[in-house]
Amino acid sequence: MALTGKVAVVTGASRGIGRAIAMRLADEGAMVVIDHPGDDDAADAAVDAIRQQGGEAIAVKADVSSAQDVDVLFAETLKQYHTVDIMVNNAGICPFVDWFDLTEELWDRVHGINLKGAFLCSRRASTIMRDHQHGGRIISVSSISALVGGGLQTHYTPTKAGVRSLMQSLAIVLGPYGITCNSILPGSILTDINREHYRDQAILERDRKRIPLGRLGDPKDIAGVAAFLASEDARYITGSDILVDGGLFVNLQ
Ligand code: NAD
Ligand code: RM4
Question: What does the alpha-carbon distance between residue 184 and residue 182 come to, in Å, rounded to a whole number?
Answer without folding.
Answer: 7
